[in-house]
Every structure is written in structure tokens, then in C-alpha cells.
């Protein structure tokens, strides 16, 4: 259900970096590949200093269907990922939790989603105690489709 290309439409989080840099949000796409029928290889494409970068991550399935552990190093290591709701043709809502901190992301098959989907997303963020004050929507143009070999960050290192 998650395979293929997705656009990051919105995110709700108490992340201080996001709050301080919200005026610099870059259009972001994600390509999901299902490995061995269960784990997910995630390639995120976004601009940093006007250069396209690819960030590779690996989600390992845990416990129940739709629950994953983000494998890797640094701040994102040990993040629990839960698929909240998916319509494979139009949108996905995912929860990211580390310790007591939670973020919610809305992905679309296109860079724009319907008002009904945005309403669902906003209901979900309120349900976990987040608010519109910490909700950010991403640009809908200027996407990267690839990055050269010198601009790949591998979360497996």
C-alpha cells in the first residue's frame, strides 16, 4: 500500500528546528520500496542549500502490521513509526514517536490533497495533543527527483 512516490504535504511537531526554520521549508518527496515483503526502504528527496539531496532510511517491521522502527544513527535512530491511515491512491498519515515526543506527517500521491484529507490530518494531530500552532505545510512546487552520488545521506551508516 505504501509503495511508490509520495509528496510530504504537512507535518505537525513540537520540533524546535522546524519552528525556527518553518519559513525555509523545502518541497519534499519520498519514494517507498517494500523489501522482503515487510521492511521499507525510504528515499527522501529535498533541497538543502539549493542542492538536491537524497536521504536513505530503513523501516523495520515490529509487533503489528503498520508499525515500524526507524533504523539508523543520530536523532532519528530508534523512532517508532505507525501508519495511521492510508488510501493508497491519494494519502497516508504517519506517526513518528521517540520517547514522549510525537510528530504526525501527511503524505499525498500528489503535492496537493483534498480539503477532506486535510481535515482528517488536522483531527489526527489534535487527537495526539498537537495544535495548528505546530502544524506546517510544505511548498507544492520545485521538487527534486534525484540527487547525484555526492549528495546521498545513508541512514544505515
Distance between the termini: 28 Å
Work out the strand percent: over 45%
CATH domain fold name:
Lipocalin
Strand order in the largest sheet: 1-2-3-4-5-6-7-8
Q: What does the main sheet amount to?
A: 8 strands, antiparallel, barrel
The number of domains is 1
Percent of residues in helical segments?
10-25%
CATH architecture: Beta Barrel
User: How big is the Rg?
Assistant: 15 Å
CATH domain class name? Mainly Beta
What would the average pLDDT be, to the nearest integer?
89
Question: What's the SSE pattern?
Answer: EHEEEEEEEHEE
Secondary-structure content class: mainly beta
Q: Using DSSP, what is the number of strands?
A: 10
GO cellular component, one term: extracellular exosome
Protein name: CO8G protein
Main location: secreted
Subcellular location: Secreted
Written overview of the protein:
By secondary structure, the chain is mainly beta. The protein has one domain: Lipocalin (Beta Barrel), CATH 2.40.128. 11% of the residues lie in helices and 47% in strands. The protein has 2 helices and 10 strands. The chain has helices at residues 16-20, 115-127, and strands at 4-12, 28-35, 39-48, 51-61, 67-71, 79-87, 91-98, 101-108, 135-137, 152-154. It has an 8-stranded antiparallel barrel with strand order 1-2-3-4-5-6-7-8. A hairpin with a 3-residue loop joins β2 and β3. The chain is globular, with a radius of gyration of 15 Å. The two termini are 28 Å apart. The mean pLDDT is 89.
